[in-house]
Amino acid sequence: MREFIFLMAFLTSLAALSVDALLPAMSQIGTDLNVVRQNDVQWIIGIFFAGMMLGYALYGQLADALGRKIALNIGIALFITGCLISWTAQSLAVLLLGRFVQGFGAAGPRITTLAVIRDKHHGREMASIMSMVMGIFIFVPVIAPALGKAIMALAHWREIFLFYIAVALAGFVWTHFRLEETLKPERRKPLDIASLIQGFGECLKTPVTLGYAIASGTVFGAIIAYLNSIQPILEDIYTVGDWFPLYFGLLAAAIGAAFFSNSMLVGRLGMRRLTTRALQAMALLALLFLPLSLSGLASLPVFLIYGGLSFFCLGLMFGNMSALALEPMGHIAGTASAFVSVLSTGLAVVAGGIIGQLYNETVLPLNLGYLALALLALGVQHLTEKTRPPETEQPQ
Fold this sequence. Notes:
- The chain has 396 residues and is mainly α.
- 81% of the residues lie in helices and 0% in strands.
- The chain has helices at residues 2-20, 26-32, 43-66, 68-88, 92-120, 123-137, 139-154, 159-178, 193-204, 207-237, 244-269, 271-295, 300-326, 333-357, 364-386.
- Mean pLDDT is 90; it is low at 392-396.
């Protein structure tokens, strides 16, 4: 069981590693590829998530039709292909192509590990295993930038993609020898794109699912905006230099603390009230920080405190908003999960991309972006809850 949990966490972490380890190299990538407008380098982050968005819609179908391990191996193969394209890229356009393919491949391990856990475990045991997987996964954003920085110190930013390939190959070998196929042949279903489209249509017509998927997208957009902006903020504004991985890790740890706190807080407040309180707190924090960002007086410690508290709020929302979106969709849970992932990721890429492109060598665009996204999510949640018949939520 211990090995199984570590394997699932290892495969799940491939996507986070693919983003966070590359952050220390962003400015050098822009220089080496002769990128005229430095903000354009941010698309290296957004295009990866765009590839994952497409993968979310398809890997569930592949895993149900071909088996979990075949779908997983297809994802790993595409991930490695994307890494090879990125490794050899001599222009930003080719690098973005590689990152898109890499993201599309990374969605495979993410989706299939969830399916494998569902196949093998149920109820509280499944929830317990998912919590342990996430507990291990949380450490990846904390250490990934340091890994990327270490690779750059020893070699070149291109070798980060070789590191990704090595990790992916390790995952392939590990699963090949140590993970059995969990979907028996008699339980496999033919590829049925028509049912996927029909299920997506039903989700669009269900106000609770659609509303919370949109709200989840705005929250995720705050994370992508942060990923787009944090490297120039820390290195150009605050000139942290080699300390970048440490400060990034500290902020990432705030989300981890929220994950660990969530179960206790949900038990007291319920999912809806907790997400409302977290959004209100995020908006209030942005308002309090606004005078400092307008005046340019936001010191590094103050920024870290603001970022850490905002990240704690964001960490309280992720799982709860997805769970609320899926509440009415138990009869098509897999398709609905794909719908929520696709819509929320698509909205997040757009919102986070816009905020990142507004970066102007100050923290103001990120601050205003967080305020706008929190207020937008609050408005969407309010309208969504008005469509729900009155009821008393039971503690989750």
